[in-house]
């Protein structure tokens, strides 16, 4: 489904969104002129608690979307990365689990003209100390980085072993931050236990307007322990778009600077003060540009977030 609103009666920023559509066409031709007109305010940044470094609240994930080979498949990905950078986004999240994604990220960012303006995050996903070291070194080579911003332990695989390596790598300057990840509600308690005991800088987990388990304990624990959060599966693996297919945004969404369903779903997450960054994945430059707009303008307060959740829950 298309991910922009189609009701002209709902837009107070109609011209801005027309420019967004124009920008998407420009992206397809390799340019970015006009995108800034659709994003008139700077993207919201939130501090990484351990360092106070500011990080833009919307980045891009690479699961499935960046696992490509041909030049024709890579070109829209390059334009999507340009859309991220142009709108003020920084984080690119990948993993050796994601096929060719790390290599594609490295190749495309090297061609982008602003390779050093991204925040590079990837993962270790294997068992054993030496195997983990080899895999992480290969990841750095594929992503064309002499040091990485964030290395995460993917889905908690052999986490105790890899955490010791990551502590040493951070001390040596090979990575800047240490993270852990999972993607299911059933492992949130384990993530909470680790955050309570270990020096973790980032925790990545599943959270969406349809899957709010993280709000119970994981997000509050991350906030209390000073751990930055990265949100995966923000669109509930596409189920959210299926739920709203053919439906128009309510008028009150436009009044709150929400102009597409993608922005609706992402702003719901960003509105939670303990969320540091969301990483929707896409290979479509227009969708990437739309996702980035979720980080701009007004963000929903607690009351509006509940109104948003009630709307989706009632569909």
TrEMBL record:
- Report the InterPro entries cross-referenced here: AKR2_Oxidoreductase (IPR053135), NAD(P)_OxRdtase_dom_sf (IPR036812), NADP_OxRdtase_dom (IPR023210), TAT_signal (IPR006311)
Q: Which domain of life is it from?
A: Bacteria
Provide the NADP-dependent oxidoreductase domain boundaries.
58-294
Q: Give the protein name, as stated in the record.
A: Aldo/keto reductase
Q: What's the source species for this entry? A: Larkinella bovis
Organism phylogeny = Bacteria, Pseudomonadati, Bacteroidota, Cytophagia, Cytophagales
